[in-house]
Amino acid sequence: SMERGSRLVEIASVKRDIPDQLRKILTPKKVSLLSIHPLFGPLARMKRSKICIVGDGRDLAVARLLFPEAQLLRMGAAEHDKAMSFAISLIHLMNMTIVSAIVKGIGVDTFERLAPPLATAQLRLARAVLSQDPSLLARIQVGNPYVAEMLSSVIAELCDLKERVDRPLANKRL
Known about the structure:
Layout: E1 7-10, H1 18-26, E2 32-38, E3 50-54, H2 57-66, E4 71-75, H3 77-105, H4 108-114, H5 117-130, H6 134-143, H7 147-173
Helix pairs in contact: 3-5
């Protein structure tokens, strides 16, 4: 129902094959697509805000007209999704893990009473993450094909750290 010559702007957090599929639908109708991912919340100022552009040089030129003060980052859909698995999914999942570990380990009340400033700031950040729309967080995690690979990498790093922590303890017992 869009008019010929109009432009559709899509803002999905996970691109996967969305831009390609939309272009197939829109091209015969002579409607163009601008696929972007604003990397800021509704309260952010546009100046210096980052926006990923999934497309070619023409898309970048259109985005510059629409968002003259933003920092525009052009990339492919796969490159975007892999980067977002670290820049968004990792941050969400680690903060969920932090809160869960605190709750199960010592409880939030004890943590808040004893936490130094950096730990208090981390808990505040984790609460901000958890206050977001749970269905959006779930779609970002499940819909991104690179999240499982990123998690495997993080788990390997955590296992390596656990081994390093356990080694001195094992030597002391001898």
